[in-house]
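Lecture 7 notes: from sequence to structure.
We start with the chain below.
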Amino acid sequence: MARPDFDDIFMELAVNLAKRSHCIKKHVGAVLTKETRIISIGYNGPPPGTHNCDEEFPDTGCSRDSKGSCSLALHAEQNAILYAVKNNASVEGSTLYVTLAPCLACARIIFSMGISKVVFMYSYAEYKGLPYDEGLEFLEKFGVQVEKYEQKITYEDTLI
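Predicted structure tokens for the same chain:
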């Protein structure tokens, strides 16, 4: 039996975490690592103690902001970073595995927190119908290593 690569392990975990999302539009998972250790995980959804969109608003989801995005949910990478910081884990020099490339706002947070590498599965721009991935462009411009995960991961019954 072949030993799996850590990139595969971490991205498969991100895919599985995405299945925990309560969003009715898109499920996204994230894993924050340092070397070969997981320091935090996250998936997109509302802050604890608020609403679970798929349960409270199953037909429409939560309300939208002025740009058409969810007004309530935190992105998967935000949740992973916030959880790490809340638990006093240093994220500087870490690698973030995420099923959807970071948006520009998340990219700013990733850079500001000193995360050194982002491995993503799908394009945020393609999902949103944008001309390019401005989050990835921002990260590359400021020296964060960006890598598209090219392996195929099989999953069922999810909006990843």
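Points to note: Residues 102 and 136 are 7 Å apart (CA to CA). The chain has six helices and five strands.
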